[in-house]
Specification:
Elements (H helix, E strand, L loop, with lengths): L2 H35 L3 H13 L2 E2 H8 L3 H13 L3 E5 L7 E5 L1 H10 L1 H11 L4 H32 L1
Antiparallel strand pairs: 1-3, 2-3
Helix pairs in contact: 1-2, 2-4, 3-4
Amino acid sequence: MSRDKLQKQETLDCLLKSLHKYGMRTVLFQQNMAQKMGVVHTDLKTAEILNETGPITAGELSRITGLSSGSVTALIDRLEKTGYVMREKDEEDRRKVVITPIQKRQKQIKAHFESLAEATKEACLTYTEEELVVILGFVEKVIRIMDHENEKLMAEREENN
């Protein structure tokens, strides 16, 4: 292997290790934030999922999270009790119930993450516009990869049930 290829492989290995560390730190941060907010980690992540997706059915939430329908029902009950979501009739099909995030609570969640957001923004300001475009492109690719890998896991789970 040429010296350039070897150096690129070493850099790639370091990058993959750093991404793994980042993922682990993200999970730990989220667990600590959930504890600070007085909720279970799964509840906080679900509230964030609902903020991203908007209103969805319990079945859709079950598919996204991988939780059983019974677990999702208990999860929604907890989120409803703590004021993070409400159950509403679907406007198109009144037989369906959708889980809707409560915006006031979503803003409160966002406020808890302000320190992290500010520190991340400060780190980003050390890069040029061109570098930020490259970083953004990379992050968006990684998100698509994670979405694809999650879809594969969900499909496997459905096949095994």
